[in-house]
Amino acid sequence: MHSILKTSLAALVAAGVATTATADGHALSGELRIISDMSNPAPRAVMEKLAADFDAMHDDLTVDLTIVDREAWKTQIRNALGANPPDVVNWYAATRMSPYVDAGLFMDISDLWNEPEMAALASTKGAMTLDGKQWGVPYTYYQWGVYYRKDIFEELGLTEPATWDEEIANCQAIIDSGRKCYTIGSKFLWTAGGWFDYINSRTNGYDFHIQLANGEVEWTDPRVRETFANWRQLIDMGAFIDDHQSYSWQEAMPFMVDGEATAYLMGNFSVAAFRDGGLTDDQLDFYQFPTINPDVAPAEDAPTDTFHIASGAQNVAAAKAFLLYVTSPEVQSEINSGDALGQLPVNAEASVSDDKFIQEGFEMLSNNASGGIMQFFDRDFPAEMASVGMEGLQEFMVFPDNLDDILARLEEARQRIYQ
Amino acid sequence: MFPRPIQQQTQARQIGYQALLPFALILWLLPLIAVFIFSIKPDADFASGNFWGLPSSFEMFNNYGKVFFESNMPRYLFNSLLITVPTVIGAVALSAMAGFALGIYRFKGNLLIFFMFIAGNFVPFQILMVPVRDLTIDLGLYDTITGLVLFHVAFQTGFCTLFMRNFIRALPFPLIEAARVEGISEIRIFWYVVLPLMKPALAALAVLIFTFIWNDYFWAVVLTQGPDAQPVTAGITEFNSQFRAAYHLMSAGSIVAALPPVAMFFLMQKHFIAGLTLGAVK
Amino acid sequence: MSSVTTNGARAQRGWYKRNEIAITPWLFLAPAMLFFAVYVIIPIGQSFWISFHQWDGLGEATWVGTANYERLLGIGEQNIDRKFSVSFWNNLKWLVLYLLAIPMGLFISLFLNQKVAGIRLYKSLFFFPFVISQVVVGLVFSWFYLPNNGLFDQIVGLVGIDIKGGMLGNPNTATYGIIAAGLWPQTAYCMILYLTGLNAVDPEQVEAARLDGAKGRKMLWYVILPQLKPATFIAFVVTIIGALRSFDLISVMTNGGPFGSTRVLSFYMFEESLSEFGFRMGYGAAIAVVLFFIMLFFIVYFLWSMYQDEKGGH
Predict the structure, then answer these.
(1) Subunits in contact with chain B (3 or more CB pairs closer than 8 Å)
(2) Is residue B134 domain-resident?
(3) Looking at residues A385-408, what average pLDDT do you find?
(4) Which residue of A132, B184, B249, C255 is surrounded by the most CB atoms within 10 Å?
(5) How would residue B71 be classed by pLDDT, with cut points 50, 70 and 90?
(6) What are the chain B neighbours of A248 within 8 Å (beta carbons)?
(7) What is the mean pLDDT of residues B231-249?
(8) C-chain residues within 8 Å CB-CB of B132?
(9) A355 within a domain of the structure (yes/no)
(10) What integer pLDDT is reported at residue A26 of this predicted model?
(11) Residue A2's pLDDT band (boundaries 50, 70, 90)?
């Protein structure tokens, strides 16, 4: 159904980047089967073009692309990798890879990482490494941070907060003006994970956060409680919109567009949605999550999306060539540009889009994330811990008084999961 | 007749009843009426909070056009059809034969096998889920229409056999005796004597199974992924993420998805109800 | 018959002919039994087997004995699995409240059991909700329950009730909201069962009872309901099964949330085995087995009633 036909137009565009992939000199042939989860409109167009271009570059190769719903793919990948697997699939970096690595469903592509071209991806290598081997390549990443209504901040005479005290003071002023400080839609839980990542890493540092993710610290530890105490300050002020547990992240968007809430802790993918919702760049701006504990270096959430080769892949040569193609500087510049994915390229030689949010994010991650890069709650924590954990975080946001019970539950889960 | 026919009551009560009927119906179908109104509203109505009022403009053709031409809906509808029709044929055929065997013949284990079919039909889906999914993957039928059809046929056979066997039991047995005396083979008795008498049961089951399978969501989620094989019930949730909070398009999609079983119901109402109410009267 | 058949063929036919009555039922049963065994009977056994293992569904399974059950039910030093107990209690709520469909269905069927112009159309339109997929029903009701914009929230707002988080966002009300959505099609089903049952009520008995002065509730209780017993029985069975199978609505309306308060066993099982973060096939299988035993209770009851009927019949 979704096999992409060769089009002469695609060939024209591809001509400029046709050199890297066939580096080994062999002509690729047969069929390359890709299952992608890039189902939202803009990513979908990018993926379809990638497949068409790669197809057009190789006369004897047919690229067969299937795009599945991004949410659905999270549960379907294990079936897809099981019997008659495709050659290339999309997934996420870090611990999120481990079920498939442990089960031997992802191919070890450490050899590919030894290719000279991959040197430009060195900064992402850690996120793709488990057990000392590399299991895939990244194709894009994006910063997280606070997107806010600049016009409302100006109206209230507020500036971007750099410290937690400023943050609280700003928030109080916003609440006094009859608005909420933050919109959030926690129905699908992960948005609460972002808040935890930031408050915990700002309170206790990156290393502590990763120890917690690795199950080395108890959830009932006083340092964890400190994180929740900081978070609770905002909750008790009424900083978050009401009923957020009923909304998805998109359904929470109108609160900010309508000006009922002034900021949103989100990934950069939300910029497109803000603009679609009618906010102009004069109204929308971005700041890094403020410092809480001045003694810890700032760590940032910058989730990486990836491509992997299935261990049962039929056309490994073509799959590897495709991975090299996707990570090449030219393709990276193109697919991450403002009118395509609008995110950050993983290749250091690629050019960063001049979109103001992408520039700002790039600047922040390059110069002001000395603490470390987190992949995100549901990618750093093992699957089961992430699921129990995010449910607890959502409950905390609605019923902060239940904290003791929630932490006891998470601790019980930790003891079972990491044993 | 109970309750007492309204015609035997006062004029006022009769008028009151006649007036109450449409009112009660509208109340009862309010959710459906709401979806229909949603489906002809423009997007702007939802943005401005006009959820439950009248549409500010009539966007029926626009919305339904988008559903049919700019989404995977047609593909999902077609899949549903490809899943439902073979399942109906398969399950009805298998259960007609099984029902014949269990209804006509006396042999050891008859009742046991019959009860096994009934019990299996009531089993929670979840206890079958993992093994059936693994079996389907092993057969190379994961994410195919065939994989889904095979399972549905097997599972629905339980219910259909219950139905068929009881129906055949109620047929006049002397007819079969007479045929046997004439030396007609058992297979011919099934084909020429019993099957023609079973037409109402076949029709009733066919419409019923059609509706059940069309509306199946659980197995669609477990055994398929993506637009290549998924039926419309699972597809509509994809639709959900494709047009987030686009209530007007999701409503239009829901209505389109609901139409085939509704049409089936209205066209074959008599059979449908006969099937559903089997056993409700002695 | 022609006379050129060979001896062998004649012997074969002879053997088949002699045993035709005994063999035919098995021939007819074979395909259905094969399908049913492969896809229903054997998988039940397999699930029992899996439930004694720890298995992520990808690699090798490890035998763990009854550890999954101990963890689930909190046997030994561990506490009962909270998600399990929440699911179990929600299942009970479903079982009890879903049965409301039976009296509600009876009420509507009594209301509609008249012979006036257009009543047939009314009856079919009242039955309408049952024909629609639960996915659609779930979507519609979740819009109906939306906080602020939902019609439900606006209506209860008029009488001064404000459900914090909205019907589906509040852990105290969410399950009831979903059950109410489920009751809508289920009531329609019970209604049609009773309408058919009422059709078959013996008019002479009714007239006789009327002459004896019975009417209204008394008539319903002593004369009509006993005659509707078969309909009530079927309604009971299908409602119980429907209650225990509640998956689609939960999945569409709340996905088990908020904070897992709307989980039921069937949903929890799916979540543990196949959802985004679920890799515990063995544990999931153990939940399914527990659910199976709950259902078995009703299955046995149903089979027992049928067995009584069979003994009474033929």
Answers:
(1) A, C
(2) yes
(3) 94
(4) B249
(5) confident
(6) 244-245
(7) 72
(8) 39, 43
(9) no
(10) 59
(11) very low
**A161 prior amide bond cis, ω within 30:** no
> Is the pLDDT score of A3 beyond 50?
no
Q: Averaged over B90-99, what is the pLDDT?
A: 95
CB neighbour burial string for B203-242, b if at least 16 within 10 angstroms, e if fewer? bbbbbbbbbbbbbbbbbbbbbbbbbbbbbbbbbbbbbbeb
Report the relative pairing of strands A30-36 and A61-67 from DSSP bridges. Answer: parallel
Domain with A382, as residue range(s), is: 144-301+363-417
DSSP at A290: P
Q: Would you say residue A19 has pLDDT above 50?
A: no
Find tokens 């399908």 and name the residue. Answer: C35
Residue C10: per-residue pLDDT? 54
What gap in Å lies between CA A377 and CA A374, rounded to an integer? 8
Domains, chain C, ranges and CATH? 83-312 (1.10.3720.10)
Residues B84 and B220 in one domain: yes
State the CATH number of the domain containing residue A281.
3.40.190.10
Let me know whether B60 and B139 are in one domain: no
Q: Return the bridge partners of A129, or none.
A: A134
Statement to judge: residues A389 and A336 lie in one domain: no
Residue ending a domain, choose from B66, B89, B118: B66
Question: Which positions 17-76 of C are in contact with A (Cβ < 8 Å)?
Answer: 56-59, 71
Read off φ and ψ for residue A63, nearest 5 degrees. -95, 125
Q: Is residue A63 part of a domain?
A: yes
| ipTM higher than threshold 0.85 | yes
Query: Are A167 and A290 members of one domain?
Result: yes
Please tell me the distance from the alpha carbon of residue C27 to that of residue A383, in angstroms, as a whole number.
Answer: 50
pLDDT at C255 > cutoff 60: yes
**Tens of pLDDT, residues C192-223:** 999 989 988 888 888 888 888 887 888 888 88
> Is residue A103 one of the residues assigned to a domain?
yes
In a domain, A3, yes or no: no
pLDDT beyond 50 at A335: yes
Give the torsion sign (CA, B146, B149, B155, B157). negative
Looking at the predicted structure, is the pLDDT value of residue C106 above 90?
Answer: yes
What is the SS3 assignment for A130? strand
Does the pTM of the predicted model rise above 0.90? Answer: no
Domains in chain B: how many in total?
Answer: 2
CATH code at B152? Answer: 1.10.3720.10
Range of the domain at B272: 69-276
**pLDDT tens-digit series, residues A68-112:** 878 778 877 887 887 678 999 999 998 899 889 988 899 999 999
User: Which residues is C62 bridged to in the sheet?
Assistant: C54
| Co-location of B101 and B56 in the same domain | no
Shared domain check, B145 and B46: no
Tell me whether A68 touches chain B (CB under 8 Å).
yes
Determine the pLDDT at residue C12: 60
Residue A357 backbone zone (phi > 0: left; psi -120 to 50: alpha; other: beta)? alpha
Minimal-distance CA residue of chain A relative to C167:
A246
Same domain flag for A43 and A93: yes
Q: How far apart are CA A402 and CA B5, in angstroms?
A: 59
Q: In this structure, are B41 and B85 located in the same domain?
A: no
- Partner-chain residue, chosen from B28, B118, B154, that has the shortest CB–CB distance to C39: B154
- The string of DSSP letters for A351-369 reads PPP--HHHHHHHHHHHHS-
Question: B-chain residues within 8 Å CB-CB of A80?
Answer: 143, 225
Q: Is the dihedral of CA A217, A220, A226, A232 positive or negative?
A: positive
Which of C85, C42, C39, C60 lies closest to C282, judged by CA? C60
For A271-321, the pLDDT digits (tens) are 888 887 788 999 999 999 999 999 999 999 999 999 999 999 999 999 999
Task: Tell whether A73 and A187 lie within a shared domain.
Answer: no
Name the β-bridge partners of A66: A35
Domain end, chosen from A292, A326, A350, is at A350
Domain-embedded: residue B168: yes
pLDDT for B241 = 55
Same domain, yes or no, for B172 and B59?
no
Judgement on whether residues B229 and B190 belong to the same structural domain of the protein: yes
